[in-house]
Amino acid sequence: MPDFDENDLCIRHARRLIESGRVVLDGDWASARPSVEEQDAFLESHGWEEYSAWHLGLDGDAAYEDRARYGFPVGDFTRIHRSALIAAMLEASRDGHRAVEREAGDLLRRLAELNP
C-alpha cells in the first residue's frame, strides 16, 4: 500500500479556494469526481503541478509524472467539494494516513467556519 503524506501545495490551494467561496457544500462525490478522461484533459492543458494542487496526499515513492503519486482528490478542478474532503478523511483514517486525515479535517473545519 502506498504511504501518503500531506501535500502542502494542495493544502494552500484548497485554503485559497475555500476563502474565496469556490466550494460545493452539497453533492455526491462519486458523481462529481473527475473521470479518467477529464483528468487526462486537465493534465494535458495544465500539467502535473496543477494536477497535484487538487490532491491532498502524495506518495513520495512514486514518480512525479505518475498518477499513483497523487491521492485523495479534493475537487473537480474548479471547486473544492465538501463530499471529497469527507471521503478523503474517511479513506485516510481507514488506511492509516494520519497526516492526510488531519489536513482533510482541518479543511472541513475551515469550510464549516465560512459556511455555518
Report on this structure.
This protein is of the alpha+beta class and 116 residues long. Helix content is 54%, strand content 14%. The chain is built from six helices and five strands. It has helices spanning 8-19, 29-32, 36-46, 48-52, 82-95, 98-114, and strands spanning 4-6, 23-24, 55-59, 70-73, 80-81. The chain has a three-stranded antiparallel β-sheet with strand order 1-3-4, sandwiched between helices. Strands 2-5 form a two-stranded parallel ribbon. Helix 1 (8-19) packs parallel to helix 6 and helix 5 (82-95) packs antiparallel against helix 6. It is globular. It starts with a strand and ends with a helix.
Low-confidence region ranges: none
Could you estimate the helical fraction of the residues in percent?
Answer: 40-55%
Order of strands across the main sheet: 1-3-4
Q: What is the terminal separation in angstroms?
A: 37 Å
Which sequence of SSEs, written as H and E, runs from N to C?
A: EHEHHHEEEHH
Assign the structural class, choosing from mainly alpha, mainly beta, alpha/beta, alpha+beta, or little secondary structure. alpha+beta
Mean pLDDT: 95
**Total beta strand runs:** 5
Measured by DSSP, the beta-strand proportion falls in 5-15%
Radius of gyration from the alpha-carbon trace, in angstroms: 13 Å
